[in-house]
Amino acid sequence: PLETFYDGYVVNEVMDAAYKSVQSGRWEKVILKEWRGKSPDETLVADQTEYDEDHFLIKEELLPNGTRKLILKDKRSGKIFEKEI
Asked: Which one-letter DSSP state was computed for residue 21?
């Protein structure tokens, strides 16, 4: 994909928050003066894809050895874990 100037702006703000976090020793907010995504309330929780009755699928990767790695989130506990299939 082609990155835009706006994409770079967002990455820079994330990096600024990361550096600030290193200095403060705690989580720091990413502050965007211009947000082009969904409304702020909608962005607090990422879209979650159903995997099965008990889990959301966060990410799926195809590994070099041909197996698939899933990153899943337990619906009840919120715990995130990996599973290879």
From this structure: H
